[in-house]
Every structure is written in C-alpha cells, then in structure tokens.
Amino acid sequence: MALLLLFVLVLTLSAAVSADEDAFIGVNIGTDLSDMPHPTQVVALLKTQQIRHIRLYNADRGMLLALANTGIRVTISVPNEQLLGIGQSNSTAANWVSQNVVAHYPATNITTICVGSEVLTSLPNVAPVLVNALKYIHSALVASNLDRQIKVSTPLASSIILDSFPPSQAFFNRSWNPVLVPMLKFLQSTDSYFMLNIYPYFDYMQSNGVIPLDYALFKPLAPNKEAVDANTLLHYSNVFDAMVDAAYFAMADLNITNIPVLVTESGWPSKGDSNEPDASLDNANTYNSNLIRHVLSKTGTPKHPGIAVSTYIYELYNEDMKPGPLSEKNWGLFDSNGVPVYILHLTGSGSVLANDTANQTYCTAKDGSDSRMLQAALDWACGPGKVDCSPLLQGQACYEPDTVFAHATYAFNTYYHQMGKTPESCDFKGVATITTTNPSHGSCIFPGSSDRNGSLLNSTIPAMDSKSSGFPVYGSAFYTVNTLIIGVLGWIAVLL
Q: What fold is seen in the domain 10-51+155-329?
C-alpha cells in the first residue's frame, strides 16, 4: 500500500510539473526606441527577471547570438515586409530558415516562428500568399529535421472575430474564409497554435461605456455582475477569457475544435493623451499583474477550464519612437534603462517577472520635489514612520551630504524596505519614486543593497502608509537630525 501511495504521489507531482510547463508568460520585445539597449543588456534584463519566453518581431542576429546558451525560449518572426517574397518562393523561405534558424539552433532555443503579424487586417494584399508562406517555412524546417522542435503559425488581430459576445455566437469575418480555412487545417496538421492578439484596453475604449473598466482589468466581480452567455450559461468575469472563448467558438464554426489558442500580445498602456484617462500606471499594473496570475494559475476559460492560455505581454520596453497617440509609446514594463515603469503586484505568484530587477529596488526622493513637502515627509518617516534615522546624525555614515534631499532619500528607502517594498510605501504624497539605482555612497549603505546583510528594523510597523498619512507642510525649516525631535513635536502639534 505504501508503495502504491508513493507511486500515486510521483504521478501527481509529475502531472503538476507538466501542467506548469504548459502555462507560461512571455514578453514581446519591440525595438522602436531612440536608445535601444544592446542585445547583451536586453538578455541581462531577461535573466534578472527570470523571463523564460520571449517573442521577437524579427530574427535579429545580434539578439539571437546574445540569447545563445541561455535556455530562454525564443519566438522569432518573419517581418511583414518579407512575407510576399517568402510566400511566393519556396527557395526564399528555405534561405530564410537557413540564415535565421539553422544558423542559431540549438544554441539559441528557437521554439516558434511567427509568419507575419496581423496580416489579414494590416496587410490584406499579402493575405493570399499567407498560407503558402506558412507551408514553405514549415517545409524548410522539415528539410532540416526541425519541424518537431519548432512550430509555425501567424498572429491574428482579434478584430477578425465578429459578434464576439456572447462567445458562443462568435464567427470569423467570412470574407477571410478562403485564407482561414486552409490556415486552420495547416495548424491542425502540424500540431501548432492559433495565435491571437487580445487587447481588452481597446475593447473597453471602443465600447463607449458598455464594457465596465473592472471587467476589462480582471478585477473580481460579484456573480451578478458577470457577463453570462445565454446560449451556454457560462459566466465571464473578464474580457480576456471571453475573447479567447470567442476564438474557440469561431474555429468550431468552421468545424475545427482541437487547436489551442496562444495569445501573442496582450497588455495595457501606462500613459495616454488627455482623451485616454484610463491609460494609467495603476490600470496597467492591475491588468498585467492580474493577467500573469490568471495565466500561471491555469484557471483556463469558462469553455476550457483548467487549460491555460499562455500569453506574451506587450511589451518589455516603452517604445518612444512608435507613431500614433501617447498610449502607443507606453505599453512597456521597463524603460530603456531597464528601470520598471511600475512594480507588478505579484506577491505569491512565484519569481517570474518580479519586475524589481533582482529584488534590488530602492525608494528615493523625487527630483524637483518641493523642499517643504520633502521636509514634512522626512520628519514623518523619522517619527511616526519608525525609521531609524540615527545614521543621519552629524558624524555618522549618512550625514553627508547634509541636504533635505539626501536625508529624505535615506529615510524613504528605509521605510520602503520596512514595509516590504510595496509600491504604496514609496509615495510620500508624490515626492518619492522607486528606482533600481542604488543610492548608497561611500560608507553610507542603504537598506536593500547587495553588500548589506539586509537586517532591518523589527519595530512595529505603523498602520498608516506613506500615501494616506496626510503629511503636514508646516514650514521650510531646514532639516538636521538635531532638530528631529522638534520636527516630530511640530508634526504632532499640527495634528492636534
């Protein structure tokens, strides 16, 4: 009996591992940056963030060489501008595979080839050769004995799915059936994915208030607030799942039922123009954090519960050279220096995309902040915030430089680490910001530095946080530790 139980346990653990391998979060890497990091810098960031799946919009040789021997699973792409040539010539496709795949594999772990991107909607004149391009690329892989290791597909825009809610009524734009039917049969015969780009942000923006923001952001909804498919009675709590199931139903409408959906792009912009108020840091953080948790939990969709929909987040970097509205430039998780645009809320979701650059993030005073606001925030941190500000005493390691900015940075960072590095603990009424640049200097070693033992105060953390503490602005008196007690008394007096 004991051996039987052990055998069952081993099988259970093996199944769990397989399930985890089936569900992944990847990241798209665009290059429309005025200061695009060097491929080695990009790969260093990927390693630090433990990003194991990426998608490139081309087959850049420098990136493929930098990715060699990293184990990172790489999706490369045939750019749209090369599609016509490849779709019209088997030899051109074979040459592309030779140069961009065979020359790098297996040192670079290429797993997938995207043939074009949103071809039907962005380049409709090339659509007639799309299926040929897929077949020619696949034939070149067969000739190189790589067809079992590398899948071939093409990402499509979700707009080709019509009548997408309720999902059970969804169908593809039938004008594309001459392309979609043979394409789906190709994907089926090669055991590949149906690649779909899903952007609840755009669905929300274009719905004119019909789609609630919380429904687009994966926020928890009461059962009576969920959308119900009247035909299947399935409940939908977010746009993402509804769109994935709409794709499954649309394929079923063409008698295809066994091709898995892979989401090649999804995300939310962190900044927008004045007519895009919901393109914000908070919403981008909420959407991507919830998306990552949703995918990695293998929740699946109402139609296919428990079957994960692996997804590539759009995107790694903000692309400042992207044309169009401000939001187009601000989909990135990081800026070009590798600094997080925001810190994802992923506590308890594992180490994938911790988004804090090797857990070494710091809280510093924000450049250009009002000195009186810094003064008040500093006094609060060293008083009610229970930060040990003794290193700021004259003659101690962090006294120099003797400025409000420098002293506030030390106090803010210490409080930030006391509070577990939550984004809310580095706000201080807008005069603080999170950075990956270590502000330590000389013998003044800041909490969170890699050369510090990491010991922090064990004092009781105050119930209030830095965002809601209501710092008083009670004068511009220059802070020194000799007047710390006076400052705290002044803070108390204002409250009283």
A: TIM Barrel (3.20.20)
